[in-house]
């Protein structure tokens, strides 16, 4: 069985492996022992914290193959970004230059540094090991987070965003970042992204261009990748677009990757998920797959299985093994979502 559960201290080695495998530009998993250990500790504290409104909690989860006990993927949700530091974006805007006198009209695009997403929840750290990128695994891993959002909405910002990894090559060169490195920041993309992932962001305030930047004055290859995602990230973006996430002209300040957003209550899977009551027994044969989670937090569990669910009844039969995997008993509730 593949089970999604909160990360714990003994997952450190596995998380380190995934940080290496995910590569540069995957900002939230820098290859740094202290940072990864503190991310795990922060997640452990968040899943047990009594929360009235979202602040700096981070809900990092892993996907475990229970037959091998191997951690094969990760997914996460930040409760509210920019509460303890500044959370930067470039906003793509338009300026119009128009003169009747000389009969010229130009529209030019600008990039303006902003903190507009402060307080938003952020989907992040979505990664699945190559061998497991098959069937519904990727979709389950991405979507399982909507069950958690639906069950505990008061723990998260009302707007939900995801920063999609922008374009860079295997060597860690980003076509967008080059002009920033040359004229402003000095350090290379891999280092800038690494410092950003560590939360060491003071250099951004000190070194990023102070004035808005005119897109037409950037190198052509930088212009071309504004709002474009890394090829490995196309499936992740596709999954969010299907949920109703939209690009609203905000891009990453280093690689130009798009940020997409949706109101928590408008996310399709949040709206469609249902609470059902568990009956443990023999599961009827059916072909309809569901993502299923319990309604707990510290003992949160989610998985996918074929269930017989009817519109008329609020009961659902789970096998003893499935109930055990989900840590639920007879009469308790689960949340389900068709896959
Ligand atoms: C993201 C996942 C976990 C997704 O798993 P899979 O690759 O198995 O997904 P999948 O089921 O094959 O594909 C999901 C959907 O994307 C479509 N799809 C697949 N390849 C595509 C491509 N090249 N272009 C456009 N769409 C594509 C599929 O048809 C399917 O759409 P239909 O459903 O319509 O059939 C994986 O690709 C991965 O680990 N990628 C590397 C790490 C990464 O870049 N992560 C995202 C970083 S950005 C981030 O973490 C923030 C976002 C977030 O947290 O959600
Ligand atoms: N533009 C970027 N590089 N954004 C970060 C992309 C990766 C992903 N959002 C994460 O959790 O780290």
Automatic annotation (TrEMBL):
Listed SUPFAM superfamilies: Acyl-CoA N-acyltransferases (Nat) (SSF55729)
InterPro entries: Acyl_CoA_acyltransferase, Arg_succinylTrfase_AstA/AruG, Arginine_N-succinylTrfase
Enzyme Commission number(s): 2.3.1.109
Record keyword Cell division present: no
Keyword Transferase: yes
One Pfam family here: AstA
Leader peptide range in chain numbering: none
One function term, GO molecular function aspect: arginine N-succinyltransferase activity
Keywords: Acyltransferase, Arginine metabolism, Transferase
Protein name in the entry: Arginine N-succinyltransferase
Organism, scientific name: Shewanella subflava
Organism lineage: Bacteria, Pseudomonadati, Pseudomonadota, Gammaproteobacteria, Alteromonadales
Underlying gene: astA
